[in-house]
Amino acid sequence: MICKAAIEAFRQIETPFYYYDMELLHATLRECSMQAAKHGFMVHYAIKANDDPRVVEAVRSHGFGVDCVSGGEVEIALEAGFEPSKIVFAGVGKTDAEITLALKAGIGCFNVESIPELEVINQIAGGLGVTAPVCIRVNPDIDAHTHKYITTGLAENKFGISAWAFEELVAALRAAHNVRLKGLHLHIGSQITIMEPFALECKRALEIVARFREAGFDITDLNLGGGLGVDYEAPVANPIPPFAEWFGTVAANLPVAPGQTVHFEPGRALVAQCGSLVSRVVFVKNGKDRNFVILDAGMNDLIRPALYGAHHAVENLTPHEGQCRYDVVGPICESSDTWGEDLQLPGTARGDLFAIHSAGAYGQVMAMRYNQRPFAKAYYSDEIIK
After folding, report:
1. Contact yes or no for 49/268 (Cβ under 8 A)
2. Cβ proximity of 104 and 82 under 8 Å
């Protein structure tokens, strides 16, 4: 819930803007860290979710590592002061320059997504006279029952190496003398709100580990990726995701061998609920059959609804009596620039402040200048609430 003091401060700020509840962010990070520590798990923050400097610094302050998917993200992590040994680098299209950057920095591990990538890393590492630590990303072929755009673990997805290529992979690993295999990486998708897919992921991981060990490889690192979802429907009632249930499910289904470490890569679960996109009503347009609330925040600021059909809770922060049904839309010249249809809201007027909740993940970081609109600025609770 956005407090009254914050809403009063909002009245003096040009909209749209991103607002981060830093108290909630730190509470979420503490809960995740505490629950992971109970089982000896290592957590890397998926920085693609939000690379805002204040957010990243908060994550670093709680001792997390970082999961990166580009050289630019590796650079951000290094500049933010993360230990290189806690940085893992995934992504299906790592360029030679990105691989070189990461090797020179001495990152903890490459999550290798294809045999050609393994061969290129081996070649570049040899040229630099170093040994590259790698985990092989294996496609587990598990349906996480989430949106097709954020499913990553099915056989037809572009991510990871499928089981049918195992023998070729083993041959490539044995020929890669400048690579050190640390372990395996699995990831089944994002915004997963039931535990059954994670339990199945554990079962599949054990099967894959056994196969690698039969081939003579020691698996010390087992990275299960991220994927834990958040409550987009009721973010105020459920601001912190069920980390205890997530880690507990894995602990109950994945016996850890001596000397083995289990890793996780949450992004959305750590930062989504602490962020809101705050906007003003530009116009209220009353029609014969539909009423429209037109905000000054659009898909250029938060693309998820237009891109995925994603739902974000919308709240009028300005108190009014009465209720009315509205379509809440943005200013962009695209029909997909819509925040919600036929929403029951308080009676709304020009100038009212609105909050689009759960915007801390894949919001500000995916913003663009479409229609030549400026980027929304970021504000933080510990700075604007005195």
Report:
1. yes
2. no
Reduce the DSSP state of residue 196 to 3 states and report it: helix
Give me the torsion for CA of 171, 176, 177, 182, rounded to 10°.
-90
Query: What's this model's pTM, rounded to 2 decimal places?
Result: 0.94
What tokens appear for 290 in the block?
A: 């539909």
Give the residue from 69, 3, 64 showing the smallest Cα distance to 28.
64
- Tokens 């890393």: give the residue: 121
Rounded to 5 degrees, φ, ψ at 65 are: -90, -170
Q: What residue ranges define each of the domains in the chain, with the CATH number in brackets?
A: 22-271 (3.20.20.10), 273-384 (2.40.37.10)
Specify the amino acid at residue 150: I
Q: How far apart are CA 154 and CA 189, in angstroms?
A: 9
Residue 256 has, within 13 A of its CA and on its CB side, a CA count of: 19
Cα separation, 268 vs 228, whole angstroms: 8
Instruction: List the one residue out of 72, 11, 61, 85 whose CA is nearest residue 263.
Output: 85
Candidates 45, 43, 33; CA nearest to 267 is 45
Helix 53-61 to helix 22-37 angle (10° resolution) is: 30
Angle at 223 between CA 219 and CA 226, to 5 degrees: 170
Both tokens of residue 322?
């009465």
- Alpha carbons 66 and 69: distance in angstroms, whole number: 10
329 token code pair = 């839309």
The pLDDT tens digits for 213-244 are 999 999 999 999 999 999 999 999 999 999 99
Dist. CA 170–CA 149, nearest whole Å: 30
What residues contact residue 164 under an 8 Å CB cut-off, 6+ apart? none
- Identify the DSSP state of 363: T
184-219 pLDDT tens trace? 999 998 999 999 999 999 999 999 999 999 999 999
